[in-house]
What does this fold into?
Amino acid sequence: MAPSNDLKTILSKLQFPDDAQVMRQFVDQTLQVKMRMGRIKRKIVVMSGKGGVGKSMTTVNLALAFARRGQAVGVLDVDLNGPCVPKMLGMSGRRFEITPDGAAPPVGPLGILVASMDFFLRGHDPVRWKGSMELSPVWLGMLEMNVIREFLADIAWGELDLLLADLPPGAAADKPPAIANFLPELDGAVVVTTPSEVTTDVVRKSVLYARDVGIPVIGLIENMSGYRCPQCGHESDLFVGNVESVAADLDVPLLGKIPFDRELSQRCDSGRPMLESAQPIAKRFDDVAQRIVDCLNFRQIVADTL
It folds into this structure.
């Protein structure tokens, strides 16, 4: 996908007075992001205003569900300080392959491409950000945004049907709008919550905030909607809450309910993802994936008629 003639003309007239060529690097990188993302049909962020709701687990299993549909899927692990997507997909210890076209992301189960800070770390080493954080509280956020932009600019995703971006826990105020700017034609956000009233109160604010910064909300996923007995399959409530009423108040679809399942938890912890739809929980994610497709298709039909 080459830049348009108008864009080439604009770029040719830009002046870069800084000796370090930082402005030129930024412009080149931004153009590269647009070119890379232009080869991806749909781009979705998975977010939640609350940590501990199982957002990464949801992202991983949604990616598997879409891959089971025969789609080419990529996952961008935006949690730079606590990346866990590779662990859940059994890809720990993998590395990017440097090619003439850029850094080729490792290929995981069902052909899923994954980009994560975990691929740069050794063992259990933490991410250490060096700089004047004591002097400038915005420094860390700016550096993280630069890393994410480099991920999108330098990684050779190729042509994908879907890219899922797993946002950090809580999705700090700077992340959603920044990601929205980095992902041209972002299709929207899937918001993960639990039935807990504390969580839904926070998630409600996250949905409103996403709308304020121009991110369409595709729908809610109710995770840990209950506890699924590993012996008989019976589901019992874990929390007191009503996600249906929250979804109705916000006028967003409830895409599905995922109960806590011990087998799924053990598989995520040990890097043995559910690859087949035969498992009941995997089938739930297949249903959620179909509802996401239905919502996006309906939105497109409405847009085409306006």
